[in-house]
Each structure stands twice: as structure tokens, then as C-alpha cells.
């Protein structure tokens, strides 16, 4: 796994295929989308957000199949893991971090068994304990599942918490009420 948005050229590993790709960060769109569900002032993640969990997850699912593109938060070009969350939060007019590692001290840490759809799940990087990947919990019944942009050569998908991701799991954070 890897940091979704850093400012340097690096080698990235696709966690699903194991292939390594050299990447150079792409530019990203910083403008919020025009179709915001929330028309008030821009909010922050300093306090729990009053966003409907089901609507939040359903909006995230509209990006299923979007190609992965390192450094991008624009679905027309592709998305990386933190770009997916950044774009979703922009939709709800929420100021959010752009890099996965910047979520380390955001929200309230909750236990895995108490995770709800809409909570954010964080993972360590390939060769690091630092946050390097993230997704949004979509369900937590028999097994927790999350939506994310896994890496080069993949598309936004829903994945169960097992194998590689279980090994690199760091924590779940709650930012929604």
C-alpha cells in the first residue's frame, strides 16, 4: 500500500497484482463540484458532520469502476484513494485533508467491530507504519467491506477486510455523526 498523494516521484506497488510502477504526481482539481448536496458554508472535520451515512456511502458508490490515477481527485481523470475521499467531501462542502497520512489525527478512533458505513478506514503503507491508504466502510456485518481506489491498473472497488488489508489495518475513524 502507499501514500495516496505525496509531492514526490516514487515507486508504487499495486496491492492487487503486486506489480511496481514508477509514478509522478498528477495535478488535481481543487474546485468543488457544482452539484453539492449542502449549500451552506464550507465545513471542517473538526466536529462530527451531520451527513446521512447511507447517502454518503451511496454517493461514494457512484465512483465504482473509476480508474485509479495517482494524485488525482477528479473522477473524469481517475482517482487515488485520498482523492476519492477528497472529492466526496468536496461534494458535501467539507474541507478535508488531501493525503491519506493527514487523516491520522482526524475524527474519533473507534473499534473495528463498532465501525459503521461511512466511517473511514486507514491502512499503513507497504513498508511503513505511517498511514498510506484509506477507504470508506460500506458495511460491517459478517465481514467489514470498504470502498477505495487500490492502486495502479485498478479501479475504484469494494473490498473485504482480509489478507493484505487486514495485515495493514491501522484504525477506523468516525467523522460523521
TrEMBL record:
Residues 1-39 have a biased composition (Polar residues). The keyword Protease applies. Keywords: Hydrolase, Protease, Thiol protease. Residues 50-176 form the NlpC/P60 domain. Residues 1-41 are annotated as: Disordered. One of its GO terms (biological process) is proteolysis. InterPro entries: NLP_P60_dom, Papain-like_cys_pep_sf, Peptidase_C40. It comes from the Bacteria. GO terms for molecular function: cysteine-type peptidase activity. Belongs to the peptidase C40 family. PANTHER family: MUREIN DD-ENDOPEPTIDASE MEPH-RELATED. This is Hydrolase. It comes from Niabella soli DSM 19437.
